[in-house]
Design goal:
The protein is α/β, with parallel strands linked by helices and 250 residues long. It contains six helices and twelve strands.
Length: 250
């Protein structure tokens, strides 16, 4: 049963999951709270990839089901607060993203940024930390998606396996990847500031961790997301077994 514990800004699904894997989807939603007046964006921008990671939550939910793994996901757009960034990062509340200006973020004061941090990031941070601490041998796996074309350039990579200082799980997954164009730290890497969750919750505590980026044209439909979730579940199970960790306990 997929029990859920919801607050306004974060959802915990399958909280009693038996798996050692703890799934995270920081960019699960394009929701912008009413009081923020759509951040001044038109409908196209609000539903585009700049506001969230299309398909990522569907993949994460399938993984959660296949592995009986707890899933922590954000309920607000990353333009409101990017839960994979620390408060001091400029792009935690970006004033622009690719070709888009974000009017509602352009004149944020220090007090505004602090309020956003307290309202959206801190609850997510606390909830995720609590779920991790409830596991005896947690394995942190974050799920993201990226666009096939970025600033006019096509991306050949289909799945990125990202890591920061701890590359144990990334190495093991890369050894299992038997289909798709799979690359290490692509299309982003640690130098791009995308490994915040991994560093804070994984590396700092010695927990196995990895970030999986999926090109979003591969996960456009529910069937696509389900298929991808099954592929990743198989990779994770084999990779963790190689390391000596059981991904899903019967």
């Amino acid at each position: 049963m997929d029990n859920q514990d919801d607050t306004d800004v974060v959802t915990v699904s399958r909280a009693s999951g038996a798996s050692s894997v703890l799934l995270v989807c920081e960019h699960a939603s394009h929701h912008i709270p009413t009081e923020l007046d759509d951040l001044g964006l038109n409908e196209v921008a609000r539903y585009s990839h700049i506001a969230w990671d299309p398909g990522a939550l569907g993949v994460a939910r399938k993984l959660s089901k296949e592995l009986d793994a707890t899933l922590v996901s954000s309920n607000v757009s990353r333009l409101v607060y990017d839960c994979n960034r620390p408060p001091e990062a400029t792009d935690a509340m970006p004033s622009e993203n690719e070709a888009y200006k974000i009017p509602g973020n352009e004149a944020l004061t220090s007090a505004d940024r602090t309020a956003r941090t307290e309202t959206y990031y801190k609850p997510f941070l606390r909830t995720l930390a609590a779920q991790i601490s409830s596991k005896t041998q947690p394995v942190i796996v974050t799920i993201h998606s990226f666009t096939p074309i970025y600033n006019g350039s096509a991306r050949e990579v289909e799945i990125g396996i990202l890591h920061d200082a701890d590359q144990r799980l990334a190495d093991a997954i890369l050894a299992q990847a038997d289909r798709y164009n799979v690359q290490r730290n692509a299309p982003y890497g640690p130098d791009d500031g995308v490994t915040h969750t991994l560093k804070v919750h994984g590396v700092a505590n010695g927990h196995l961790n990895v970030m999986i980026e999926i090109r979003n044209d591969l996960i456009q439909t529910e069937d696509d997301q389900s298929s991808m979730g099954m592929v990743l579940a198989a990779w994770l199970t084999k990779a963790l077994s190689q390391i000596g960790v059981v991904a899903c306990k019967a």
